Amino acid sequence: MKKGRSRKYRALELVRMTSQAAFFGLFLHLLLGARYTGEDYISSTVQRFFHFDPLLALVTVVSARLVYAYFAFSLITVAATVLFGRVFCGWACPLGAVHQFASFAFKKAKVLRPPRQDKASLAPKYYILLLVLVGALVGLDLAGYLDPLSFLTRSLAVSVLPALARAAAGLTGGLYAIGAVGLARSLSQALQNWAVNTTFLQGFSVGLFFLAAVALNAKKERFWCRYLCPAGALLGLLSRWNLVKLRIDKDKCIDCGLCTQHCETQARPYPNEAWKSGECVYCLNCASICPTAAIGFPLGARPERLTNVSNVDLSRRKLVLTTLAGLVAAPFFRLAPSRKRAPLKLIRPPGSLPEDKFLAKCVKCGQCMRACPTGGLQPVLAEAGPEGIYTPKLVPKIGYCEYYCSLCTQVCPTGAIRKLTVEEKNKVKMGSAWVNRSRCIPYVLGKPCIVCEEHCPVSPKAIKLVEVETKLPDGTAVVQKAPVVDLELCTGCGICENKCPIVDDPAIFVTSVGETRSAKNRLLLDISGGGAADPYR
Fold it and tell me: How far apart are CA 331 and CA 309, in angstroms?
């Protein structure tokens, strides 16, 4: 038995594992870099990973009817796939690395035992891809829910990192308790440097979906990559023209079937004519475990037949039925009340495009939520309808929009939030503040309180203090200074609501009305017929 080639592919397999680890490390580094570092502006590279994703590029361009220049980087991934196959999935995808490691861990724990021959259909991810593309044609951006980069970023930013930060904070307390002060201080300083927000409204549900995706690897190795990933399906279709083909030397092959049994993505290396280039991620596992070194990957310019790309029946009937299903389903995403009247508390980040355009471009990645220094940006659940799930909104009770911060506008990978300087951002109105006089301390109790006015960051201040007379329960009257809001100056930053001492239901609150991005969501509409100007049109 010749072992030279086996050693060669085992070495290449180790190179591939190193590549996966390096790209995952780079992804994590960029994600952790999307935070306040003490500077007003951060590097644009923190969003660059997304621009190499062909699915996000295609869906964003089609749904928004607009070419975003940064997505030109995705052509590199397309070219690499056309030339060398789905190497992005096997060598560079950070979510693929997570599933690879999880599958390895489940195999070592003997929870996962690969079947000798897996004949399950790989159709689901192709149906998902088609539904996503059909949705994009009618302006519905669904890519972000299952796209690997968006899914992983959202999961880490909104759930995994906050959970780890909570656990680390608890560990810090334990270290202080046992006297390990130096280690406790180092860990505490690291947590502060990473600036991980630990409060998210949908953190539990996002984390649950992530854990479920990882746990599915106990059923099938790289379950997500096999059956759910629309980006993998798109790259699989592009890879049929690739130059690197699997070949089995029939003189060396002993028909053991190990290659097919241990194939991570059900590409069926054996028999050779059954190999599916569209499912192969070039992990080289089959070549490295072959006992006779019969498997190789020589260059070959002949494209694979579409029927051999996967065991999906790409019949005209199924394509038509799936397309019709997507067209019929799309309108149901837009039956939400938010289409008729702007939701009270749907306060979008500064620089957000008008709602329709925003939803057409936002990929629900959570980068803006990760970057927000106060934790005020939170994932939406129901306010924007089904197509707005996991898009960002400002929740002033949790955190306000920092006056000297425009980080959320700098990290958006698709332009759903326009890039703004701090000066430009401070001219944007996200909403308006209102005083609930039935709960405000000076109005109700006749006691002094000027907290909201003190914290108002604009100049001149949008919150003014006026003298009001309050009648107390005993019939006496007192005069105190109480807040009123100048709606012309208020930007809707929410710091007044956040700092209000009435903690359960603040006496001053912010709504979306008056936002700059909307010509309709106004307190007083222009009834002359001209309408308000749309600054983002």
Answer: 32
> Is 318 a domain residue?
no
Strand ranges, E, within 111-180 = none
The 3 state secondary structure assigned to 28-86 is HHHHHHCCCCCCCCCCHHHHHHHHHCHHHHHHHHHHHCCCCHHHHHHHHHHHHHHHHCC
Bigger pLDDT: 437 vs 475: 437
332 belongs to a structural domain: no
Residue 154 and residue 259 in one domain: yes
Q: Specify burial of residue 65 (Cβ count, 10 A radius: 0-12, 13-18, 19+).
A: exposed
Q: What is the spatial distance between Cα 39 and Cα 28, in angstroms, rounded to a whole number?
A: 20
Domain span holding position 468: 432-511
Question: Do β-strands 295-296 and 247-248 pair in parallel, antiparallel, or remain unpaired?
Answer: antiparallel
Together in a domain, 403 and 502: no
User: Tokens in use for 89?
Assistant: 């999935």
Upstream peptide bond of 271 is cis (omega within 30 degrees of 0): yes
- Say what the pTM is: 0.91
The whole-angstrom separation of Cα 305 and Cα 101 is 32
User: Pairing mode, if any, of strands 463-471 and 295-296?
Assistant: unpaired
Query: Cβ contacts of residue 197 below 8 Å, gap of 6+?
Result: 162, 369, 370, 372, 375, 399
Cα(367)–Cα(356) distance, rounded to whole angstroms? 20
On whether both 413 and 482 belong to a single domain, the answer is: no
Answer with the one of 309, 337, 357 that is the final residue of a domain: 309
CA dist 268 to 75, 262, 441, Å? 29, 9, 72
Question: Same structural domain for residues 369 and 476?
Answer: no
Find the CATH number of the domain harbouring 415.
Answer: 3.30.70.20
Most confident of 184-193, 294-303, 436-445: 436-445
Check whether residue 260 and residue 281 sit in a common domain. Answer: yes
- Is 520 part of a structural domain of the chain? no
Q: Hey, what amino acid is at 74?
A: S
Asked if 190 and 203 sit in the same domain, the reply is yes
Map 180-225 to HEC letters: CHHHHHHHHHHHHHHCCCCCCCCHHHHHHHHHHHHHHHHCCCCHHH
* CA neighbor of 367 nearest in space, from 24, 37, 49, 23: 49
Asked whether residue 530 is domain-assigned, the answer is no
Check if the beta carbon of residue 384 is closer than 8 Å to that of residue 394.
Answer: no
CATH code (residue 463): 3.30.70
Question: What is the tens place of the pLDDT at every residue in 18-36?
Answer: 999 999 999 999 999 998 8
- Please indicate, yes or no, whether residues 100 and 245 belong to a single structural domain of this protein: yes
> Secondary structure of the chain: what % helix, strand, coil (to 5)?
50, 5, 45
Quick one: CA torsion of 132, 135, 140, 146, rounded to 10 degrees? -10
Task: Please name the residue ranges forming H helices in 456-526.
Answer: 495-499
Indicate if 447 and 413 belong to the same structural domain: no
Domains in the chain, number = 3
> Which of 423, 393, 397, 419 has the alpha carbon at shortest distance from 408?
419
- Contacts of residue 406, Cβ cutoff 8 Å, sequence gap at least 6: 40, 41, 350, 351, 420, 421, 422, 424, 425
User: Is 513 within 8 Å of 485 (Cβ atoms)?
Assistant: no
What confidence tens digit (pLDDT) does each residue in 371-393 have?
A: 999 999 999 998 998 989 999 99
Are 480 and 447 spatial neighbours (Cβ–Cβ below 8 Å)? yes
